[in-house]
Amino acid sequence: MKNLYWVFIWIACITFGNETGVFGENFVIDEIPPSGIFINTPGTYTFKKNIAWHPETDGSAITILANDVVLNMQGFTLKSSTTNFKTIGVSAVASENLKIINGKIKNMGLAGIQCTFCANVSIKYIEVDGLNAEDIVNFVVPTGILASECLNVIIDKCTVKNIDVRTASCAGIQLTATLISKVTNCKVEDLLNRDGACSGIGHILCDDLLIQSCYLNNITTTFINNLNTQGHTAIGIIPTLSINIIIDKCVVSNVTGCCDDAHGMSVFLCQNASVTKSKVAHVLDGAGAAGQGAKATGIEIYGDNVTVSDCFVKDIIAINPEDKQATGFSCGASNGVRFIRCKAKNVQVYDANGKQDASLGYGTGFGWAPDPRPNLLKPAVNVLYQGCFAKHCQVGFDSWFHIDSVWDKVTSIENDIAILNLGDDAQRILSCGPCSECGCTFITCFPTPYIVTVNNVAQNNTFFVLDKKGVILIGE
Which residue has the higher pLDDT, 23 or 329? Predict the structure, then answer.
């Protein structure tokens, strides 16, 4: 990912090679025909009333193709009259110096706002209410607000809610291949994908991103029969294959997964990231009819040079997890991850009847992030747990698959096992089904079910564990 800037170099050249225009005259939008309208001239465009749009096929109500455009909805609502098509409220393509502000976009099929190849974009005070797409044949991704291959994007004080779709994946707010972005003071709630993956705020192949003071609640996935997807994960915040990331003061609650992972936050295959002063509560995995999931996690890290500090997670539950684990904080396939002053409370693993058994795995406050896929079945190296706290978990701290790692003045309170430190003769058996990540890819298919026996590789680890009175349980 060191060369990620090259993905954006053509955007920078085009953007900074042009002079910034001056916003033109004012225009009023008071109706939109079924085919939509096109904005080809710079200027300020305002709504003067609520607008009911009656689309007759897939498409956008408003398409912006000009630079220097302000679309001010002035508090009014753009509402589609039908959910039969893959409709978009506002679509902008190759637009520079764009503002979309002050309004509601309701009852679309595919997206509220989409920006592609745009630069200097500001989306503020927008509410996207309701997406309804259904398509399990094509890889369709309904998104409340989407910025793809853009430069310098600000999404502030926006709300995305009431997504109810059946597609391969969906997201509340998604940025893809975007350089410099800020998602701040936003709310994402009540997202349901009935047969695919679902995320609240996601980034893929992005550089220099900030997610701050965002609130996410009630993100759910279920399973019917769709295997034309890379899983059914339910995740609040997930930057993937991205670098230079800040997640600050965010709150995620009520994430419910069916047969795949459920996470409050997952920093996945990323470099140079910090997660600070954030909270996750009530993550449940395995809530589907089969009574089995993959794993549940409060905050999960797969990456290098990542710091998680002053964060709190609680009530993380997995039912019959294929990865044999629920975890408050976890890291896997990582190097140089630091957990500083983090707290995990009430992390548990149960069977479908609410009973606990060590053969099902453990609810662990802090531990490794397992994944049976070969490219992710790697140890956590050079991890620091400093001043962290685990309470009411089956295991407070687990050293499994850690190398050259340090548990420095961590505190274990009222956990069944303070620290689990198994030797290199220990094994765990992980599995993965087609409803989870181990289905068919574009290249090959995993056998069903995919099962792998993992031999512990933990070595050269150091422990300094305290109880609630500060008495040393393990260490010097």
Answer: 329
